[in-house]
Amino acid sequence: METSMANTIPAARPRVPNFSSGPCAKRPGWTLKALSDAPLGRSHRAKIGKDKLKLAIDLTREVLQVPADYRIGIVPASDTGAMEMAMWSMLGARGVDMLAWESFGSGWITDVVKQLKLQDVRLFEAPYGELPNLKKVDSKNRDVVFTWNGTTSGVRVADASWIADDREGLTICDATSAAFAQRLDWPKLDVVTFSWQKVLGGEGAHGMIILSPRAVERLVTYKPAWPLPKVFRMTSGGKLSEGIFVGETINTPSMLCVEDYIDALEWAKKVGGLDGLVKKVEGNARVLAKFVRENDWIDFLAVKPKTRSNTSVCLKFTDPAVTALPADQQAAFAKQVVSIIEKAGAGYDLGHYRDAPPGLRIWCGATVQSRDLKALLPWITYAFNEAKASLGKKAA
After folding, report:
1. What spatial distance separates the first Cα and last Cα of the chain, rounded to whole Å?
2. How far apart are CA 389 and CA 336, in angstroms?
3. Which controlled-vocabulary keywords does the entry list (predicted)?
4. Closest C-alpha to 130, from 330, 291, 314, 335
5. What interhelical angle do 273-294 and 255-270 show, nearest 10?
6. Angle at CA of residue 333, ends 327 and 337, nearest 5°
7. Which residues of the chain fall short of a pLDDT of 70?
């Protein structure tokens, strides 16, 4: 690899260079042997399959510290499937406030406005890097749909203090890149969804839906005006399909993926449960915060420190030579930085989300080691300097 006279290639590389924001890095020490107890070739409806699925649910409750009266179900189609299931099954009973400050929240707005075609919808949107004004959200009288952590913007809600304690509507929360890394305020949340492949590094295609007693009441007392696809149905004959929440799934799950999720949850217990996971993630986030403080050419996309994600950390280039470029060239610059790092085998899947402002998105979830993040940082500096030097060559 060629390098400029003033730019030195870093001597070391991360031991695990996987920094994707989903699917995310596997837990430290993971091997295929961890899945040797998977009941492959057996029906998920057999006792052995149901027992594995129930174990996954029980461990989820233990590690996430989910209240005993909340129900937990394994559903198809990852976090997206879980969110769609919740919105199609529960929205429409009253007005809804939709919050969005990144691509996934915007996607939920599209579904509610253009697919469900609800009439009483209020939108609270903010550009990448910011939050909407949460004080204007009517959580007392209306349903509320929001993401706890904006995966593609690196912006999260600091807490749930803005949600009314005496609310009459439901709060539906997409917590896919927050669960296991940030403390969810369960009394303020009625529906929580997430996927296995984020903070715990599980495999894809399966989602989790967690329902409060108030959410269950909505399900059994409200019938939407539209037909529900089979994979969205959580009730039958006006009663909750209890089997979903004890290990009976709506469609066929991968028992290999289930085993992998169980392995990740067991690992989570070994590192201290939720407290240990949050500690690991916060430590990772501090590594990047120190890097940003020490370099004036890069900054967080999140405007306010208290709303910065500790998992999907989004960064932007602030060097005047880059910010002066047209938008398409800024995106090309960011892609060049990512390409240099990837070609060196020093870090993979670091690019900004396709709809997000140009920059980097570095996953700092619990399965990422701080030492690997520290080893990545010199490569970011090196790649930035190389890409910046090429700007001068192009101008010449």
Report:
1. 22
2. 12
3. Amino-acid biosynthesis, Aminotransferase, Cytoplasm, Pyridoxal phosphate, Serine biosynthesis, Transferase
4. 314
5. 80
6. 150
7. 1-5, 394-396
